[in-house]
């Protein structure tokens, strides 16, 4: 289904594919100049003004309208031709061509099959039937039709479509070979088709260069078009490059693909997580000069002084296990309030030299006894209490400010939540209003339908359905008929169905009762469908 968000890309694509060289041989070699479609349409309409049921004029007008991309008008002319002569294969083939250009592959193939049963020559419908088969994902059948159109009619358009079909199949060399005769003639449409071929096979840089060669500065406009192509199915790619039609969720698919690619790239660049390896403990050696047997320092102790007012950290050098030849390190006394305590004298273990047979504990006892004789530290000054009071005031002020900030944050959070809820309510109301307007504009909702008939006379649809319903027995008696809104062509429908498969199942049952029909997907999605008024 057509995505309006990509309308500009669609127009670009259609412009590219529609601006083709029509003549199979150079103009200098042609003795007869082909009539322009505008002139042909005007000529046929003059005939129809005198005789509205002139079959040849209806067929000619349908082909002219199709060439001018007025698909509704083309379907209307072919539908009126079918009414004038229901057994004429040309009318069926014309309707098949119109359905194919609308992107309705199933409807197109249905009409082409009817035309073939009525005796249509394969080469007369090969070009447009190939398009329908491409849209349906039957690339092999499409390519066979294009080759038939090339060999029997010398169709340049068939050669361009063949190249695109081969590119959809990822056959780059065959696609470029198919285009080469046209490229040798400097066919502008073939050069643009070459850009699509390169994009389809994944060469986006080459596609951009090809566009720049024929449309300087145009590669930027085509970048979104080329970026979407790799994320489409076979049938969707065919619709994109042949008709400029993208599915509605194309942008979402591209975003998801880009996110996945980014995730994979990050995973590829990130270094592997190291596996933990158990190792044996490492023993670090310390080398000290003039020490025979270096040992680790004894642990630090934090003990109260004799007055109990302060605590003293003691860091002791290597103990009596050292060699008696080495000099002992001095012991430093560090008060935890150095600016308030009186300077503490330094002590050295030389004052309390232990004998070689004394233990570490006896050395520590003597050291502590020496420390006990040091003068006590003075009492803290009054400024400490004042500072504590100031700290309390600061803490109280901070607590008050914190409580105020919390209240303000809570108010902001509540206001934000209320605003978000209001926004959600407004969005919900707007969505409901839009849905009601859309429902009124589209009539009956539903995507999957069965088309039983089509034509330019909407008033005859009720009579036609009554005739088909009586022929189908119980299959249609309990079903309501619907009709599409149109300008020149209307569809007689039953449905909607939950899936295309469910619709096709009823099509098969109707065929056994002699009622022709085909599954139809609502294309475009915005087409209006109304209940068929009773007659």
H/E topology pattern? HHHHHHHHHHHHHHHEEEHHEHHEEHEE
Arithmetic mean pLDDT: 73
DSSP E strands, number: 8
Instruction: Report how far the terminal alpha carbons are from each other.
Output: 33 Å
Structural class based on helices, strands and sheet pairing: alpha+beta
- What percent strand? 5-15%
Question: Tally the helices: what do you get?
Answer: 20
The portion of residues assigned to helices is 55-70%
**Biggest beta-sheet profile:** 5 strands, antiparallel
Residue ranges: pLDDT <50 for 5 or more in a row?
A: 1-31, 277-368
Q: Walk across the major sheet and give the strand order.
A: 7-4-6-5-8
Given the C-alpha coordinates, what overall shape results?
globular
Radius of gyration: 45 Å
Using brief descriptors, characterize the structure shown.
535 residues, alpha+beta, 5-stranded antiparallel β-sheet, globular, disordered N terminus
Please give the structural blueprint.
Blueprint: H1 7-18, H2 37-50, H3 55-67, H4 71-84, H5 89-101, H6 105-117, H7 122-135, H8 139-153, H9 156-168, H10 172-184, H11 188-200, H12 204-214, H13 219-228, H14 234-243, H15 250-269, E1 301-304, E2 311-315, E3 332-335, H16 360-372, H17 382-442, E4 448-455, H18 461-472, H19 474-477, E5 481-484, E6 490-497, H20 500-512, E7 518-521, E8 529-531
Antiparallel strand pairs: 1-2, 2-3, 4-6, 4-7, 5-6, 5-8
Helix pairs in contact: 1-13, 1-14, 2-3, 3-4, 3-5, 4-5, 5-6, 5-7, 6-7, 7-8, 7-9, 8-9, 9-10, 9-11, 9-14, 10-11, 11-12, 12-13
């Amino acid at each position: 289904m057509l995505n309006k968000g990509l309308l500009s890309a669609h127009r670009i694509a259609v412009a590219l594919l529609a601006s083709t060289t029509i003549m199979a041989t150079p103009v200098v070699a042609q003795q007869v100049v082909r009539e322009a479609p505008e002139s042909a349409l005007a000529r046929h309409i003059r005939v129809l003004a005198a005789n509205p049921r002139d079959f040849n004029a209806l067929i000619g007008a349908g082909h002219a309208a199709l060439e001018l991309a007025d698909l509704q008008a083309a379907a209307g002319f072919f539908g009126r031709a079918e009414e004038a002569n229901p057994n004429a294969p040309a009318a069926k083939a014309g309707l098949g061509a119109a359905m194919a250009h609308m992107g309705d592959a199933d409807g197109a193939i249905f009409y082409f099959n009817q035309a073939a049963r009525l005796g249509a020559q394969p080469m007369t419908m090969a070009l447009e039937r190939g398009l329908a088969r491409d849209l349906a994902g039957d690339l092999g059948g499409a390519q066979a039709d294009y080759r038939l159109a090339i060999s029997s009619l010398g169709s340049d358009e068939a050669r361009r479509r063949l190249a695109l079909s081969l590119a959809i199949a990822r056959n780059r060399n065959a696609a470029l070979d198919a285009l080469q005769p046209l490229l040798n003639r400097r066919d502008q449409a073939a050069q643009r088709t070459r850009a699509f071929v390169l994009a389809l096979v994944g060469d986006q840089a080459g596609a951009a260069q090809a566009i720049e060669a024929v449309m300087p500065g145009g590669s930027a406009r085509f970048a979104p078009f080329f970026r979407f192509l790799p994320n489409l199915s076979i049938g969707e790619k065919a619709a994109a490059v042949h008709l400029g039609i993208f599915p509605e969720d194309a942008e979402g698919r591209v975003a998801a693909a880009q996110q996945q690619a980014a995730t994979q790239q990050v995973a590829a660049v990130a270094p592997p997580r190291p596996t933990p390896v158990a190792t044996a403990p490492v023993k670090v050696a310390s080398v000290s000069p003039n020490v025979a047997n270096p040992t680790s320092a004894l642990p630090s102790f934090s003990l109260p002084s004799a007055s109990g007012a302060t605590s003293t950290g003691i860091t002791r050098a290597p103990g009596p296990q050292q060699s008696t030849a080495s000099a002992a390190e001095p012991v430093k006394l560090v008060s935890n309030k150095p600016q308030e305590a009186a300077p503490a004298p330094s002590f050295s273990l030389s004052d309390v030299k232990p004998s070689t047979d004394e233990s570490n504990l006896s050395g520590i006892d003597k050291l502590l006894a020496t420390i006990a004789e040091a003068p006590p530290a003075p009492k803290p000054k009054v400024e400490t209490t004042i500072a504590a009071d100031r700290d309390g005031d600061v803490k109280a002020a901070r607590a008050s400010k914190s409580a105020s900030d919390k209240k303000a944050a809570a108010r902001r959070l509540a206001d934000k939540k209320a605003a978000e809820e209001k926004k959600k309510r407004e969005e919900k109301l707007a969505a409901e209003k839009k849905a009601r307007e859309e429902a009124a504009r589209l009539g009956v909702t539903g995507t999957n339908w069965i088309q039983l008939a089509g034509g330019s006379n909407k008033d005859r649809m009720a009579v036609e359905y009554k005739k088909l319903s009586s022929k189908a027995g119980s299959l249609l008696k309990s079903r309501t008929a619907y009709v599409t809104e149109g300008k020149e062509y209307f569809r007689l429908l039953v449905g909607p169905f939950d899936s295309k498969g469910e619709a096709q199942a009823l099509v098969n049952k109707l065929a056994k009762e002699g009622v022709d029909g085909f599954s139809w997907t609502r294309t475009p999605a915005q087409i209006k469908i109304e209940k068929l008024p009773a007659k």
